[in-house]
Design a protein that fits this description.
2 copies of one chain form a homodimer.
Chain A (H helix, E strand, L loop, with lengths): L23 E14 L2 E8 L2 E7 L5 H7 L7 E10 L12 E12 L16 H6 L1 H4 L3 H23 L3 E2 L17 E3 L7 E3 L5 H9 L4 E9 L11 E10 L3 H20 L8 E3 H8 L13 E2 L10 H8 L3 E7 L7 H13 L6 E5 L4 E2 L8 H10 L7 E7 L1 H18 L10 E5 L4 E4 L4 E4 L27 E6 L2 E8 L4 H10 L4 H14 L7 E7 H8 L30 H7 L1 E3 L1
Parallel strand pairs in A: 3-5, 6-9, 11-17
Antiparallel strand pairs in A: 1-2, 1-4, 2-3, 4-5, 7-8, 9-10, 10-22, 12-13, 13-16, 14-15, 14-16, 17-20, 18-19, 20-21, 21-22
Helix pairs in contact in A: 4-6, 7-11, 9-11
Chain lengths: ~600, ~600
């Protein structure tokens, strides 16, 4: 191999433009493609910024041309040359107006034929892509993803720093807590028989940092959960973790609404505007989801009153038994075929509804199998209520409210998907607020915390905690939703010992148990804990959505499979018996 | 407890100045100190920015004054008030010209008497400080340290990003490698009997990222080593990790010399100038150390030639047997007592020297027990050589060169310490370059890599590798030294398969063994690996030295003890038998 020590790169390939015509340049990169045209050899030279064409002309330098004949795809080379205007510009690439006439070539490294093509999508399986991740990452699309992720991280830190948040590192080797998801454990060699755990999140540390008076904290933190993986989960993932002292929910929405808006503006140039907020109750009633996709309408309407006296028995009996009739209008969906409508019916039935009532909107009213059961004035009121237009299609479900919400929520997503109503370059953000403090656990047959037991109730609901309807209390908890995905969430925490005791009591956690589980945090709270709260954003998913991608593995440099393996380096792997002996553990 | 939801903080305590006189403010913070003077109650209110005085006057508001009587140290409060000029300014604090006359007080949380005082150094043991870390971190000095660390991290990322380095996250759950220090292991539940390891550094990943064409990478990375800890080591530590493609050592020195200079300039306002460099060989010969403290002189001089014909037998026999006589001049050390000189002699003897020859410099020459053995012209030449002045003291050691270097190197540090020659606010940086490629392992009785087996040799020493003196080859490896501490180090890596095979052969590593140990990296190198190299800076130590501190635990938010424990949360800890069963492991 040759060396390039005496050659200083002058430019990146992708930066060359016609304005550089006549310049002498030194470029270094990979042979993306070689074409021999007549006597000329053309090389597309590639680096992280893009490609440019370099030319070897045997009439100018026969020896150099001979050397260029050795070049194969993915060879690493350095070229010295002059930029000239191309006779015929190539409008498909940004450097297409120029080419580099080479005067010196160094072959810095050769390459075997790579198992995946770098300059095209060869349709390789994800398994091959992950095994040869170092080559997969060489692909321009993947380079763009990873560089964009870096840009989001830089922008995040700069924005939060400017807002007075202090980046503080918290430990990766921490105490195992029996709450929440499963911990990854790390056996201690020095303290045999004992274990560290990897953090599921820096939750306790960030609350302690508020007790320490840091006032505003953030960290782009690695978190770990040993769960059985779904397609969009990773055993280690990255979150933008934030906590602040003396906040109110409104301060949180304003502060981090602005943060997210600035982040979008500065990285992808998108103005998301002021982020609206909606209570959990409203989100469930209007969208049938606590993470509604608000890129498209199809809001649910409760139309029970319209059908209070209907002759349509199915509706009437539901209304009389305390259920609800809920409707959505699907715009420009009058063309859905009977077959599709049957499939949509399956969606609502899978959510627990008994059936789906539908009607195409026309100039006269509604057209469909159930329309004949409804009085003309009912139809007219319904169409008006839903603001439906001819060519739309109206769907209705009659059921218990929870079931109706769930069924129409699922229906709305299904219709949006089939009709491609959700655009990937549209970004619709929403704060969902006032989550319930408790949720009923069917497994444990009791009320458990919807977030975690330190979540503060709404101030106006504190008195509820002392009543038999304590489980109706709402929390000062919030999620930030983007295009139907929860990209962030958090809460104001309880900082008063009295209120905390009350919540523990309601959750059936004894003082002794609280001490054992959360002792060092409760202990810290004795010495002057400020009111505090915060949130965390899932970086992987946020970046994925910003890029309009479908897999978080495409925005993580070295991801693991759904069986938590790294195919590139065959990890996890067996280890020496000696290593285990030192740790004082044995395999079962 | 009261709430502060309706009160928006207008300012931080420490930011208040006379220019704010007359302003209405809302402050939130901790009661640092309460003083009752006559009828008035004075509170020093503290937040992360500092303190300011707030006053309760019973003649203005008797009820409020009564409430203020309840306040104790570390209570969390919100106050509403007006800024007035103090009658008598307190010049010792930055807010000393003003005070806040309170019109509303909210007690947001009470506090028990903390086990360590926040507003003074109570001389608590480190054990107590670590147990109550959340309170220790509330101390202004610790807050300053952690906030400075955050500033260094922000500046680092901004500088490196501007220089075109891309921040890329590498996995924490990786493959265990049998090389180097001991890995922390993480048992896999999904893949029973297999283990992940926590990274000792992102070394292999950053080299793969170069193969992937990212060109310039950085990361502020958590690293883990399960070693028996010394006072200044932590099981998890943070490094600024960097790699670039197509570098030369000079590019590395220029690029990261500028980075470090900018970092110092922007964070502590210190101009470190252009960082000089010195070969490993010179550093050993002049300072007796590969990490010389260059804040003070006392360079070593080889003066063997002066004593080639001396009558002083000790010197003569050393010179004749091929050893060296080396000398340093200790400026203004003529006042060292005989007792101190005896202690200094112990230092050189501990390094393997037989003894220490010394003489005080006076107008006539040298004064000391050995001076009488030396001819006047020898003394005169010695004094001139060393540029010694009356009042200085000259020290000499005669021994094998390696021993003499080590002995005088240790002596020089000891003298500097005793005479306080090294100032903590002086920052002296040095690149130490051209480290040996190999070092002899007494344990294994063979030559092993001084850094790691991927370190490239100097281009001019490559031919040496094919000779019997291969072990004399120098590496393209470098350290950055600050005030006698290695704060960074790295190398240019081998990227050619042929050269790599040769180095493996010299190290006695068979092809099969290389494949087993480094297979996936060697495999990646087949597909077009660019020349590359990099380095890593130890963030903890860098921040510690920049702050003039002596313990890295004072710049790490939640450090572990030398037995790798966290005293605050009692970690590592025992875990449930069920957790171990799920992981398929048992305790021995």
């Amino acid at each position: 191999m040759e060396t390039d020590s005496d050659l200083k790169r002058t430019q990146y390939c992708g930066d060359l433009r016609l304005e550089h015509e006549g310049k002498d340049v030194v470029l270094k990169g990979w042979v993306d493609r070689r074409r021999d045209l007549g006597k000329l050899i053309f090389i597309d030279l590639r680096d992280r910024t893009g490609k440019c064409q370099v030319v070897f002309n045997p009439e100018k330098d026969a020896e150099l041309h001979k050397k260029a004949e050795k070049l194969r795809g993915e060879f690493v080379i350095a070229v010295v040359g002059k930029i000239v205007k191309r006779v015929q510009a190539n409008a498909t690439i940004s450097t297409g107006e120029i080419e580099v006439v080479v005067s010196d070539l160094r072959i810095l490294n050769e390459a075997e034929t790579p198992p995946i093509a770098i300059n095209e999508d060869g349709g390789e399986s994800e398994e091959i892509r992950l095994k040869y991740r170092f080559l997969d990452l060489r692909r321009p699309a993947m380079q763009k993803n990873i560089m964009f992720r870096a840009a989001v991280m830089q922008e995040t830190r700069q924005l939060l720093s400017k807002m007075g948040f202090i980046e503080i590192e918290t430990p990766i080797l921490m105490k195992s807590t029996p709450e929440g998801a499963r911990d990854f454990l790390v056996p201690s060699r020095v303290n045999k028989g004992k274990f560290y755990a990897l953090p599921q999140s820096p939750q306790t540390y960030k609350q302690l940092l508020m007790v320490s008076g840091f006032d505003k904290y953030f960290q782009i933190a690695k978190c770990f959960r040993d769960e059985d993986l779904r397609a969009d989960r990773q055993p280690e993932f990255t979150q933008i973790d934030i906590e602040m002292s003396f906040p109110t929910p409104q301060v949180i929405y304003d502060t981090f609404g602005k943060f997210v808006a600035d982040l979008f503006k500065h990285t992808i140039g998108v103005d998301v505007g002021k982020i609206p907020s909606m209570s959990y109750y409203d989100a469930m009633n209007i969208y049938g989801s606590d993470k509604p996709d608000t890129r498209f309408g199809m809001e649910m309407h409760t139309v029970s009153l319209l059908f209070a006296k209907t002759e349509f028995k199915v509706f009437r009996s539901v209304v009389e038994s305390g259920g609800a009739i809920k409707a959505i209008n699907a715009p420009a969906c009058g063309d859905l075929t009977r077959k599709v409508v049957d499939q949509l019916t399956e969606v609502v039935v899978a959510s627990g509804a008994k059936g789906l009532v539908w009607g195409k909107v026309n100039d006269q009213g509604l057209e469909g199998p159930s329309a004949k059961f409804f009085a003309p004035e009912t139809i007219s009121a319904l169409v008006q209520n839903l603001n439906a237009k001819p060519g739309d299609m109206v769907f209705m479900v009659a059921a218990d409210t929870t079931v109706a919400n769930k069924a129409l929520g699922a229906l709305r997503l299904e219709i949006a998907k089939r009709k491609e109503m959700a655009k990937k370059d549209q970004f619709s953000l929403l704060w969902v607020t006032e989550f319930p403090l408790f949720e009923y656990s069917e497994t444990d047959k009791r009320w458990s915390p919807m977030h975690h037991p330190f979540t503060a109730p709404l101030e106006e609901d504190i008195s509820l905690l002392y009543s038999p309807e304590y489980y109706l209390a709402r929390a000062r908890a919030y999620d930030l939703v983007l295009n139907g995905n929860e990209i962030g969430g958090g809460s104001i925490r309880i900082h008063s010992a009295g209120l905390q005791s009350k919540v523990f009591e309601l959750l059936g956690i004894s003082e002794a148990e609280a001490q054992r589980k959360f002792g060092f945090l409760l202990n810290a709270f004795k010495y002057g804990a400020p009111p505090h709260g915060g949130l965390a954003f899932g970086l992987d998913r946020l970046v994925m959505i910003m890029l309009g991608l479908d897999s978080i593995r495409d925005v993580i440099p070295f991801p693991k499979t759904t069986t938590a393996q790294s195919l590139m380096d065959d990890c996890p792997s067996t280890v020496d018996a000696g290593q285990l002996k030192e740790l004082g553990i044995r395999l079962e």
